[in-house]
Design a protein that fits this description.
two-stranded parallel ribbon, 2 helices
């Protein structure tokens, strides 16, 4: 199956969309562009913020998104 290619900004948006749909989502949890404040092709990856004991939720969401989407430069 071919993956849909998303820009860094849209990939981060998809991560956050699916994170909010996760059954263990809590307010304050989010994925952010890395480095901080980066946009477009300057996005090199992502970081997370929120409760550290929810690392498994972030990993689950990131894996799920990576199964359907690829990251591309803007």
């Amino acid at each position: 199956m071919r993956k849909i290619k998303l820009t860094g900004d849209k990939y981060i948006a998809e991560l956050n969309k699916q994170l909010k749909q996760h059954e263990y989502f809590e307010e304050g949890m989010k994925f952010s562009a890395h480095p901080e404040g980066a946009t477009g092709k300057d996005v090199e990856g992502y970081s997370i913020s929120g409760p550290p004991d929810k690392i498994g939720v972030y990993a689950h969401v990131a894996h799920k998104v990576s199964n359907h989407y690829d990251w591309k430069d803007a």
